[in-house]
Design goal:
Layout (H helix, E strand, L loop, with lengths): L32 E3 L8 E8 L17 H13 L5 E9 L8 E8 L3 H15 L6 E13 L15 E7 L15 H4 L2 H7 L6 E8 L15 E7 L8 H14 L3 E12 L14 E3 L2 E3 L8
Antiparallel strand pairs: 1-5, 2-4, 2-5, 3-4, 3-9, 5-7, 6-8, 6-9, 7-8, 10-11
């Protein structure tokens, strides 16, 4: 895997200032992109975990949960994640690429005004969930984001089975020592500009976020996590009429981009203070007053 060749030290978050920074073409007012105001997500950090493990060969469509060891691993880790004090909400994402490197992914948000406390809690959790070399887990903060005006204030994670993410992960070289202007030019090297430009209106692009791992060294986990992750959230990218085109744009991004690129579908969404998953699990979905988990399996209809 190619890697970003610049090292960036942790520093204060800066926001985008103009839609013209996204692309040189004009943007209709209804699709206007705005910056994230300073400190809007200051109480939040995220655990992002790429779940490796054995799975059936080929496309991940149509797995039965009981026949998918990687999914069972992800669910078992949810027991650990949802019990943490600062847990806010999470989604389990399912990769729909052919022969995915990481079949499932955790995207869990933690909330606490004490930054040091929540980062330590997530970092400890990453070590707890990452006992093997087949997975990557880390703590991440959002450092830049762009979104449509209509999506402002909609910070809840998606639940619909047609929702999904284009995810791109970047690592730093061991000997990278220059800070440079890497984060200032994130729109270019991350692929955000290209993704924004080529995402059809029908995909319902909601938000593009650059996530940074404040301590991207191994820190006790089996493998070094990605230093940066680009999370591109869509409301309907995996509607049956959009899926083939979405897979195609990911393939084109792989040719131009130096990161690990994958397309993920929302498989399950977890919100609120949860009881143990085992007490509420049924064959296809789990439901109670404090938990919302929706079956997001891929559908051909």
């Amino acid at each position: 895997m190619n890697m970003v060749r610049n090292h960036v030290a942790y520093h204060h978050r800066t926001s985008l200032t103009s839609p013209t920074m996204i692309n040189s073409y004009s943007v209709p007012k209804s699709e206007e992109v705005i910056d994230v105001s300073e400190g809007e997500m200051s109480e939040f950090s995220s655990l992002i975990g790429f779940v490796g493990g054995p799975q059936k060969p080929g496309c991940s469509y149509g797995f039965a949960p009981e026949q998918d060891p990687a999914y069972e691993k992800a669910v078992a880790e949810c027991h650990v994640i949802q019990e943490k004090k600062d847990f806010h909400e999470a989604v389990i994402l399912k990769c729909i690429d052919n022969k995915p490197l990481f079949p499932y992914m955790h995207f869990a948000q933690f909330r606490n005004v004490d930054y040091t406390h929540r980062v330590k809690q997530i970092s400890d959790l990453a070590r707890e969930c990452s006992p093997t070399h087949g997975s990557l887990y880390g703590c991440y903060d959002e450092v830049y984001s762009i979104q449509k005006t209509a999506s402002v204030g909609e910070n809840r994670l998606p639940a619909h089975r047609h929702a999904g993410y284009i995810v791109i992960g970047f690592k730093l070289l061991e000997d990278a020592g220059k800070q440079g202007n890497l984060e200032k030019t994130w729109l270019q090297w991350s692929g955000a500009r290209e993704i924004y430009k080529h995402s059809p209106r029908s995909w319902n692009l909601r938000r593009i976020s650059l996530m940074r791992c404040p301590t991207h060294h191994k820190n006790g986990v089996a493998q070094r996590p990605f230093a940066y992750i680009l999370m591109c959230e869509y409301g309907s990218i995996l509607h049956p009429s959009n899926t083939i085109q979405a897979l195609d744009i990911c393939e084109r991004l792989r040719v131009r981009n130096c990161g690990h690129i994958a397309l993920y579908q929302v498989r399950d969404r977890i919100t609120g203070i949860l009881e143990m998953l085992s007490e509420n699990m049924s064959k296809n979905d789990w439901k109670n007053d404090s938990m919302i988990i929706t079956d997001g399996e891929c559908s051909s209809s």
